[in-house]
Amino acid sequence: MSVLEFDKVTYRYPGDDKNILENLSFAVEPGSFHCILGVSGCGKSTIFRLTNGLLHQTEGRVLVGGEPVGGRRHVCGYMPQKDLLFPWRTVGENLALPMEIRGGIPKKEQLLRIDAALAQVGLAGCRGKRPDELSGGMRQRAAFARTMLTGSDLLLLDEPFSALDFLTRLTMQEWLLDQWRTTGKTILFITHDVEEALFLSSSVLVVESTPIRSLREIRVPLGADRTRRDLTRPELVELREELIGMLRKQVTE
Amino acid sequence: MKKANRGNLPALVLFFALLMLWQLGAMKMNAAYILPTPTQILQRLWELREPLLMTHLPATMSVTLIGLGISLVLGLALAVIMDVSPLCQKALYPIVVASQTIPTTAIAPLFVLWFGYGIWSKVLVAVLITFFPITITVYDGLQSARVEMAELLTTFGATRRDVFLKIKVPCALPYFFSAIKMAVPMSIIGAAIGEWLGAQSGLGYFSRRMMTQLDGAGVFAPIVLLSAVAMLAVALIAVIEKRVVKWRGEF
Ligand SMILES: Nc1ncnc2c1ncn2[C@@H]1O[C@H](COP(=O)(O)OP(=O)(O)OP(=O)(O)O)[C@@H](O)[C@H]1O
Ligand SMILES: [Mg+2]
User: Fold this and answer.
1) Cβ of A97: how many Cβ atoms within 10 Å?
2) Inter-chain residue contact A74 with B155, CB threshold 8 Å
3) Do A21 and A52 belong together in one domain?
4) Which residues on adjacent β-strands are paired with residue A37?
5) DSSP β-ladder status, A4-11 and A21-28
6) Residue A184 and residue A127 in one domain
7) Atom number of ligand 1 nearest to Cα A192
8) What is the mean pLDDT of residues A136-144?
9) Contact B148/A75, CB-based, under 8 Å?
10) Is B163 helix (H, G, I), strand (E, B) or coil?
């Protein structure tokens, strides 16, 4: 069974005169890591917002874990484009948010889970810090830990590294791959960076046009134990050029 | 207020220079019934300490506090209602803004006619002057909460109530403190104006009585006392604010 399934989904923003999604169908299998690649403004974030229930499709069905999204309170883990740590809460209190909202988890248990999550993202000991005391990369990791603590198996990450500097971004990409391997979660990751998409995903879902009628799936011929060096292999260099060509075409259309 | 404690030497120097100028000018003019010197005022303040501190200050403070209390309840309620319901916002906001164009001081004598020389005519003046900045500032604070944060919380399964308590309230808190710091002096001014127009006690009333007796220093003494109390109150609130609001701006 797919973790996420779009079934002939059409969406149009209220007041807009054309669809942004049109009859779009695709499915995501459990445990996979897909990047959604497309130029700015093509509708990538819209796909996420339909998945997490912030928007409701005009037509068609969106299924998460086999159930329709509409009307459910909590659907999946979602990490928006900015880290959005609440500045008036400590890192630990930020991580507690999903559990506070869900309710029914004793404070002690919350603390245990927060500490475990912080240790897992390499932020052990940062529970009492304020978000503005963390570096950009640390903030992203804290936000990721918070997303994990929603307890969802499906994580939607919307350009989480786009605001980071180049080197931090590379480190974070490797770190994320590692997190994916150890947790076994299903990750959908939006980016408009071709190299990032190639390095991270088992297959890239390319948005070729707006309105989005289909996502073109391009398999990346690398295993889970890849390194950055692999990106210099001839077939990957060629794949990169191919992807850039697709995006270019989309821009000029 | 933060920097006032340390390194505000230029302001202090200027302040004392101005005081000196006043002192010299007033001494030269030698008409204490209209322009007393600062030292005369201080002296008078000392002589009048009994009635000022025991009778009139408490009277003014109770008007101020009751007025402030009513303004807070009213202002917070209006701010929350306007934040929760766009329809109410559309209906109320213009009225709240328009209420500020009422020349409160000019119609305050009417309040005395309607409500008599008792405490309530003064409270009304204080409320009319202060509920507006409280309402608008707290409303702005509630509105300053970022939509993206609310959306994120919604994906965790949050209700509107969760969003209000966990995002809107913390966002509005710094605004709330600004509002109180603004409202405290205004409330004191409102109370004093009310008393000036007609009362049986209070610092405003006392100042006016001294005026009729051509006691210039006696007119100023209660005003100096009022200013001191206002400054003290604002400083106290700033201390509380520092304890409660540990973060600033920048999301
Ligand atoms: N609330 C809205 N109302 C109307 N139109 C919207 C709204 N939000 C987005 N759009 C439009 O929908 C299109 C797709 O937006 P979306 O945010 O999904 O793009 P994106 O691919 O995520 O872009 P980016 O890479 O810049 O984040 C944009 O052209 C935008 O103008
Ligand atoms: Mg986007």
Assistant:
1) 21
2) yes
3) yes
4) A191, A206
5) antiparallel
6) no
7) 25
8) 90
9) no
10) helix
The residue out of A95, A123, A151 marking a domain boundary is A151
Name beta bridge partners: A68. A63
Confidence bin at A111 (pLDDT 50/70/90): very high
Contact A208, A216 (CB under 8 A): yes
Taking only the tens place, the pLDDT of each residue in B103-153 is 887 888 888 888 888 889 899 989 988 988 899 999 999 999 989 999 999
| Same domain? A100 vs A223 | no
Ligand 1 centroid, distance to A45 Cα (angstroms): 7
Q: Which of A98, A5, A97 is nearest to A50 (CA)?
A: A5
Residue B31 has φ and ψ, to the nearest 5°, of: -140, 70
CATH number, domain at A230?
3.40.50.300
**Mean pLDDT of the B33-37 span:** 87
A144 and A114 housed in the same domain: yes
At CA A153, angle to CA A147 and CA A157, rounded to 5?
Answer: 45
Name every chain A residue with its beta carbon within 8 A of the beta carbon of B148.
80, 82, 84
**Mode of pairing for the β-strands spanning A203-207 and A33-37:** parallel
A132 and A231 share one domain: no
A87 at interface of B, judged by CB pairs closer than 8 A: yes
Grade residue A103 by pLDDT with cuts at 50, 70 and 90. Answer: confident
Same domain, A247 and A169: yes
Same domain, A108 and A130: yes
- Digit-coded pLDDT (tens) for A171-215: 889 989 998 999 889 999 999 899 999 999 999 999 988 899 999
Asked if B219 contacts B40 with a C-beta cutoff of 8 angstroms, the reply is no
**By residue range, what is the domain housing residue A95?**
85-151
Contact partners, residue B138, CB within 8 Å, separation at least 6: B75, B76, B79, B172, B175, B176, B179
Helix (H) or strand (E) holding B203: helix B203-212
> In terms of DSSP H, where are the helices of chain A?
44-51, 91-102, 107-120, 136-148, 166-183, 194-200, 234-252
Pairing assessment for the beta strands A154-158 and A215-219 based on DSSP bridges: unpaired
> Does position B3 have pLDDT exceeding 50, yes or no?
no
Handedness of CA B47, B48, B54, B58 (dihedral sign): negative
CA quadruple B29, B30, B32, B33: dihedral, nearest 10: -80
**What is the value of pTM for the model shown?**
0.85
Total domains, chain A: 2
Cα of B151 to nearest chain A Cα, Å: 7
Q: Are residues A159 and A145 in the same domain?
A: no
pLDDT score at B2: 46
Phi/psi of residue A163, each to 5°? -90, 0
Could you name the CATH architecture of B48-244?
Orthogonal Bundle (1.10)
